[in-house]
Amino acid sequence: MAKIKVFLSFEFERDRGHYRSFREEVKRGNSCHEIEDNSLNEPYKLHDDEWVRKAREKISGSDIVIVVIGEDTHNAPGVREEIKITKQQHKPIFQIRPKNSTGGLVRRAGEEVPWKWKKIDAKISEYLKK
After folding, report:
1. Which of 83, 15, 65 is nearest to 43 (CA)?
2. What is the radius of gyration, based on Cα positions, of the chain?
3. What is the Cα–Cα distance from 73 to 107, expressed in whole angstroms?
4. Which residue among 78, 99, 117, 119 has the highest number of C-beta atoms inside a 10 angstrom radius?
5. What are phi and psi of 70, to 5 degrees?
6. Which pTM does this prediction carry?
7. DSSP letter assigned to residue 10
8. Nearest CA to 5 among 52, 65, 94, 68?
């Protein structure tokens, strides 16, 4: 099984718990893919060229981008910037919704996939075949 580099995009201040949950589930072997976390994991700072450079580098080195839908992710400027970079680099992208999250979908971040590993794995496999 090949290693898949995944960039997780999430609202840093409010959704770190979802980010940690995803990583823990990967460590427990919930995915059929060997997923390597390639996320930036730094808070966005407005007009911070260094943050943007790091985000570009991380996304460029990733196979796929997954947006975690939290309560206010759709309004997060850092997530919007990561999606813009993802689109510029023509990287595959989709969104996952944690249980109990009622936040809105993130514009231009691809389709929503339920946070169920069979569905996440199927979407990753679909993109890897392209």
Report:
1. 15
2. 13
3. 10
4. 78
5. -100, -170
6. 0.95
7. -
8. 65
For residue 106, the tally of other CB atoms under 10 A from its CB is 24
Q: Are 43 and 13 in contact (CB under 8 A)?
A: yes
The pairing of strands 93-97 and 3-9 is: unpaired
Task: Please name the amino acid found at residue 20.
Answer: R
Domain that holds residue 16: 3-129
Per-residue pLDDT of the chain (130 residues; tens, 9 = 90+): 668 999 999 999 899 999 999 999 999 999 999 999 999 989 998 889 999 999 999 999 999 999 999 999 999 999 999 999 999 999 999 999 998 888 999 999 999 999 999 999 999 999 988 7
β-pair partners for 36: 5
Identity of the residue numbered 97: R
- Beta strands 3-9; 34-37: pairing state: parallel
Concatenating the DSSP letter of every residue in 83-116 gives: HHHHHHTT--EEEEE-TT--PPPPTTS--EEES-
* CATH code of the domain containing 38: 3.40.50.9200
